Amino acid sequence: MIARVYVGLKPGVLDPQGRTIANSLNDLGFNEVVDAKQGKVIELRFAESDAGRDAVEARVKEMCEKLLANTVIESYRIELDEE
Amino acid sequence: MIARVYVGLKPGVLDPQGRTIANSLNDLGFNEVVDAKQGKVIELRFAESDAGRDAVEARVKEMCEKLLANTVIESYRIELDEE
Amino acid sequence: MQTAVIVFPASNCDRDAATALEKLTGKAPRMVWHNDPIIPDDVRFVVVPGGFSYGDYLRSGAIAANSPVIQDLKRKAEAGLPVLGICNGFQILTEARMLPGALMRNTNQKFVCRISRLRLANAKTRFTKRYDAKNEIDIPVAHHDGNFFADDDTLRRIEGNGQVVFRYVDNPNGSRNDIAGIVNEAGNVLGMMPHPERAVDKLHGGTDGIPLFKSILESL
Amino acid sequence: MAPTKPADGITPEIVAEHGLSESEYKIILDRVGREPNLTELGIFSVMWSEHCSYKSSRRHLGKFLTKSDRVIQGPGENAGVIDIDDGDAIIFKMESHNHPSYIEPYQGAATGVGGIMRDVFTMGARPIALLNALRFGAPDHPKTKSLVAGVVAGIGGYGNCVGVPTVGGETNFHEGYNGNILVNAMCVGLARTDNVFYSAAKGVGNPIFYVGSKTGRDGIHGATMASAEFDDDSDEKRPTVQVGDPFTEKLLIEACLELMATDAIIAIQDMGAAGLTSSSIEMADKGGVGIKLNLDKVPQREEGMTPYEMMLSESQERMLMVIQPGKEKLAFDVFEKWGLDVAKIGVTTDTGHLVLTHGRKTVCDIPISPLADDAPNYDRPHVPTEPRDVLEPHQVPEPTDFNDALLRVMTDPDMASKRWVWEQYDRHVMADTVDSSQSGGDAAIIRIHGTNKAIAITTDCTPRYCYADPVEGGKQVVAETWRNLTAVGADPIAITDCLNFGNPERPEIMGQFVGCIEGMNEACRAFDYPVVSGNVSLYNETNGVAIPPTPAVGGVGLISDLGYFKTLKGMKEGETLILLGETKGWLGSSIYLRALHNREDGAPPSVDLAAEKRTGDYVRKLIRNRRVSAVHDLSDGGLAAAASDMAFATGVGVALTNPSDLPGHAWYFGEDQARYLISTDANSINPILATAEGLGVKAQIVGKIGGDRIKATDAFDVSLVGMRDRWANWMPDLMSGATETV
Ligand SMILES: Nc1ncnc2c1ncn2[C@@H]1O[C@H](COP(=O)(O)OP(=O)(O)O)[C@@H](O)[C@H]1O
Ligand SMILES: [Mg+2]
């Protein structure tokens, strides 16, 4: 099983990285881009186990709360993939 | 239209971030995690236009090659979303 | 007076902090390793130093905030132990929720190292009393992620409580309200991006950091 | 790229792909006594590459002065070691990472910093300072900005994270580097003289330890790449570049220094270019022993790696060491505490052979001595550079507008402030930076922790002089570092160098190389200022066009008492400026000529080494006697530029005069060597002038300090703040809108 965790800034949090990307794209002549946001994807690979989907998801959620996302500024979304 | 660009290290390229994240998850007791990789998602919002999907995709590809990905060490994947 | 500096893998201002503490207390601080479950009981003041704990991978300070020693630091800070988090230390304290807000990438995306002028926003804290009538000081900054963010409610609250201690005169990183350093509500935990420990020596960064250390050490 | 599967036969194509000539291959056949297998061939090819064997340069490097009373270790080890009294030793070296930085600027520059730091802490030193000498293409070349952005971010990203201050350097722009930028990094470390570590393996049956990151397929053939020219396809080839991991480097430093405090280490060597191959062979060769490695034990990042790949990998942050038998557990414990990969991968033997096993099979068994001793050593043909005519002042047009002339000189790409660069470097970490790029000063000053003494460090090179006249240019490079150290009051001790040139197989390039070395060496001898370490980077060419010859030099000096140092900052209102040294108004190959007339012709200033010595020794004496409040040497841009630098740094104006018969442009912008500007109070003027006369040092009053303008009789008159803004904004303006990969 593989889990993909998408972490992005919460709405309302200024995203300077996104801003810079959009500006740079405009400078390069990609004027159709009006806005850009940058986030992270963390892909986790697990050891073989018989834990069910829900159990895995619950664990990944815990990882996010504890470490992978800073919920003061970020929100996250989990995707599981059986491979 | 929205484009999502996923950028990750090419296979075989050292990923110190991913390794450190995996180690840290293990330290926190998430022993089921054997490996972690960290990548980026860049979400681009476009101005209204009648450009077709293929045309947009071609442009985003150009953005990736020029700016969004460092193709010496990173590979990318584009996803388009009509909203 | 016994002080301590916490050392994480790739902390790198631990020596700077230790040098400053030794100079001002006459006694070498205890260097407490991140894996130690307990900060020794004789320690009266703790510095969480700057640097790049765990390479700043994932997010600055995130991994360090989960280390065993920080769990003990949290307990002891709640019981009143004074703590100073400098730069990466500030990032760690916010990640550990010992201080509100978060430190994001500098708006211009670049690491910035310069002497920065700070305005004392609250000169009455345990950390700033000794600045006397001075209201501007020069302290070096050196960071990539020093852009302080808190949502509107939090910002209003900390401003209202007088928790904002230092503001940049010339904001180098995009911090909201030019915030350079804040204390917790109880006033015993200070986090700041500028490096006061690099300003305790005429030959190196000036001496405007000395009153900060004196304030807190004398309050003990 | 070479095939990585074991081949049955070595074809001429495979030999050529490995950058080996037919005659070199014949020697291999002879020394091994049979046809080598692919792994063995790969090992020979990297060991005999230009990068590892110095085959074009070795015989010339041998001419350098390498000894003095203070030299503990000269060239030949990972870095040079000098004695700075009280049991303290300074260990330093400079190295290039040019090719990788052109291909992937961030990682190329970052791993360059990582590599040079490993060279220094391998020898038992804690790194205490980093410098960087950078050359980029023309500012308006389409690649320049992103290369600048990436290289600077990479240097900062690595050094800042490891926590070693980056305290100085230089940044030039010239179209000659359009296709080949230069990224030279220097590291200085501090050790105890009785605890310096060397790379010679000793004894038989001693365990060999591998420590640090796992081995991956990074940068295979990096060493041969560094020895090849670029062509138009290079952008596309994109060989696997290495990614740096400063976090692991920091752990490696702490762990190695911790183990070095015990007696567990017999020998230690970092894995730099050509990784496991060159590190194991150098250790064995220096110690006169054999080595047997079990490649199955090498920590690996990827599956299915072949012996060939493991031996040639350039994965970063790895070290090899020979451990004292019985101390294995101690070593394991230290490295595990720091969370590093550690494995015992082999032993020293008495066979004189490098023997590798993999999957229980012997995959390599070759004698070690020919790898080192029989490495090619070429006497490449060289022709000297044609001397140029000397340009007399009247042959160079005077400016119609001196204010504009000063502006053009101060905003020339090489002259403008590099704050944009050094603000991205942590210059203060470690609590001992007394002066750094911050003041724009001549040399950085780093205190020896816990003492009242310091070292001064600088890097310099003036490629346009070296191009015009390699011998004079070579002298000038060494003299300028010596002058910069002198200007802060330090006793210059020794240098390291990074010799960046084009294709040595072309006689005119080889002539530049030989000429620069000759000039450098002459200066080293005149100053008793030896070369203790260095690096050569050749084949810096694109499509047959070579870079300007660029022998970058890093100089180190000692300030034995911090009560007596000076910088270019600190002059006071009302003081007098005195110029020491002779001015003939040398405008050939000057910044003035380039900035105003877009010309780079004319012979470069000649360097009178005796005058340099006389004048420099006097300057140091003045600083020690507290006779001066600020000192700056004169170099690019001459008197006008030096005075402006001092005014910018201090925030006080200057008013210059021209007591000579020379026309204004020659007096104010001439680049005669062996000169310094000093600022002093009224009481000291006469004693200074009198003593100078006695010493045979020319001394003239050339200006006054005060006000808020930079002005000169019969020449310019501009506002200090206005000029400083233009000087300061050149680089931010250039870089605004720079697009770096995100
Ligand atoms: N790449 C760089 N990194 C750090 N400092 C730099 C860099 N480039 C220039 N500087 C700093 O800018 C100042 C001026 O540089 P330079 O003109 O080369 O000085 P000088 O001519 O005295 O050797 C010096 O203090 C130098 O250390
Ligand atoms: Mg100089």
Automatic annotation (TrEMBL), chain C:
Gene3D superfamilies: 3.40.50.880. It holds the Pfam family GATase_5. Its EC number is 6.3.5.3, 3.5.1.2. InterPro entries: Class_I_gatase-like (IPR029062), PRibForGlyAmidine_synth_PurQ (IPR010075). Keywords: ATP-binding, Cytoplasm, Glutamine amidotransferase, Hydrolase, Ligase, Nucleotide-binding, Purine biosynthesis. The active site is at residues 87, 195, 197. SUPFAM superfamilies: Class I glutamine amidotransferase-like. It comes from the Bacteria. Pathway: Purine metabolism; IMP biosynthesis via de novo pathway; 5-amino-1-(5-phospho-D-ribosyl)imidazole from N(2)-formyl-N(1)-(5-phospho-D-ribosyl)glycinamide: step 1/2. It is found in: Cytoplasm. It catalyses: N(2)-formyl-N(1)-(5-phospho-beta-D-ribosyl)glycinamide + L-glutamine + ATP + H2O = 2-formamido-N(1)-(5-O-phospho-beta-D-ribosyl)acetamidine + L-glutamate + ADP + phosphate + H(+); L-glutamine + H2O = L-glutamate + NH4(+). CDD domains: GATase1_FGAR_AT. HAMAP family: PurQ. Part of the FGAM synthase complex composed of 1 PurL, 1 PurQ and 2 PurS subunits. PANTHER family: PHOSPHORIBOSYLFORMYLGLYCINAMIDINE SYNTHASE SUBUNIT PURQ. Part of the phosphoribosylformylglycinamidine synthase complex involved in the purines biosynthetic pathway. Catalyzes the ATP-dependent conversion of formylglycinamide ribonucleotide (FGAR) and glutamine to yield formylglycinamidine ribonucleotide (FGAM) and glutamate. The FGAM synthase complex is composed of three subunits. PurQ produces an ammonia molecule by converting glutamine to glutamate. PurL transfers the ammonia molecule to FGAR to form FGAM in an ATP-dependent manner. This is Phosphoribosylformylglycinamidine synthase subunit PurQ. The gene is purQ.
Automatic annotation (TrEMBL), chain D:
Substrate binds at residues 96-99, 118, 242, 314-316, 537. ATP binds at residues 54, 93, 497, 534. Its EC number is 6.3.5.3. It holds the Pfam family FGAR-AT_linker. It catalyses: N(2)-formyl-N(1)-(5-phospho-beta-D-ribosyl)glycinamide + L-glutamine + ATP + H2O = 2-formamido-N(1)-(5-O-phospho-beta-D-ribosyl)acetamidine + L-glutamate + ADP + phosphate + H(+). Mg(2+) 2 binds at residues 119, 270. It is found in: Cytoplasm. Residues 17-55 form the Phosphoribosylformylglycinamidine synthase linker domain. Keywords: ATP-binding, Cytoplasm, Ligase, Magnesium, Metal-binding, Nucleotide-binding, Purine biosynthesis. Pathway: Purine metabolism; IMP biosynthesis via de novo pathway; 5-amino-1-(5-phospho-D-ribosyl)imidazole from N(2)-formyl-N(1)-(5-phospho-D-ribosyl)glycinamide: step 1/2. It is an enzyme of class 6 (ligase). Mg(2+) 1 binds at residues 95, 535. Residues 204-357, 572-709 form the PurM-like C-terminal domain. The active site is at 51, 97 (proton acceptor). Residues 76-190, 440-559 form the PurM-like N-terminal domain. The keyword Transcription does not apply. Part of the phosphoribosylformylglycinamidine synthase complex involved in the purines biosynthetic pathway. Catalyzes the ATP-dependent conversion of formylglycinamide ribonucleotide (FGAR) and glutamine to yield formylglycinamidine ribonucleotide (FGAM) and glutamate. The FGAM synthase complex is composed of three subunits. PurQ produces an ammonia molecule by converting glutamine to glutamate. PurL transfers the ammonia molecule to FGAR to form FGAM in an ATP-dependent manner. Belongs to the FGAMS family. Monomer. Part of the FGAM synthase complex composed of 1 PurL, 1 PurQ and 2 PurS subunits. This is Phosphoribosylformylglycinamidine synthase subunit PurL. It comes from Algimonas ampicilliniresistens.
